[in-house]
Amino acid sequence: MIVRDKSNSFSLLFAWHGTILPKVLPALMSVILISGVLVYLSREHFFSLPAVPAIGFTIFGVILSIFLSFRNTACYDRWWEGRKLWGGLIATTRHLSRDTHILDTENRELLLYRMMLFTHLLRDRLRQQESNIEHYQPDTQFDPIAFNQIKQQVNPAQWVLEQMQKQLVECYRSGQISDIIYNNLNQHTVELGNIQAGCDRILSTPLPFSYSVLLHRAVYSFCFILPFSLEANLGLWTPVLVALIAYLFLGLDELSAELEEPFGLQDNDLALDSIVRLVERETLSSIGREIPEPLRPWKGHLS
């Protein structure tokens, strides 16, 4: 995620890192080049392009803008839903940390360490990566063989949630907690499972491929044909106006593709590492353990 000071409007005009411009620059330069070549050939009278009625491109542009707006709204909804789910995860871990004071110290710390392990595994699942979790083995008290096989589970995060629930069941059966306390604590594990299910839904259900391809082709077709429509009327100004219009359409197309997958490692994806570290810091503070440093933006990027 890009974290940048927005108070300086002038610097935003020339921002490069984290913007869409680097990704659309090759296509944008191609459109500008085509426009420049058309203007040069026309002014040197090598040939004269017939004036293309602007009404056709106007209708095409309006329709394309509407559908791009629909797609960008859908993609942003996916990004925002992902952020709300991880915001809910932060809230649920805080609730669980407070409510587990009813347990004895050993069981409370064990449950909270497993909760932190769950957040790590959920992030890795969504980003389809593997991170080092070996330091959690002593505090989660999993059997070394079982712990080494966590990543081989079909759903490692779900497996950890299952172990958390088993621990609560054991506390209930041993008489350490009542059925009311058990139901209250177990509700937090259920909520963590619901959060994971919501994230899995976003991860496994992208926008329809044919819809994305249709708009992608339409955007590029519009941008590359645009110079042929404007050159007769704009002359030397053709490359300038074409560049501005193409930047808008190409940028919106690329931005929607980036927001569609909110859990990745692109510049504008969610800062899951930072959220996991936040949960870790708050939980370790609650149980009186050493607190790691918070993750800070590097060159305006927070992972």
Automatic annotation (TrEMBL):
GO molecular function, one term: chloride channel activity
Primary location class: membrane
Residue intervals passing through the bilayer: 20-41, 47-70
InterPro entries registered for this protein in UniProt: YneE/VCCN1/2-like
Gene Ontology CC annotations of this record: plasma membrane
Cell location: Cell membrane
Assigned keywords, A-Z: Cell membrane, Ion transport, Membrane, Transmembrane, Transmembrane helix, Transport
Membrane topology: Multi-pass membrane protein
Similarity field: Belongs to the anion channel-forming bestrophin (TC 1.A.46) family.
Protein name: Bestrophin
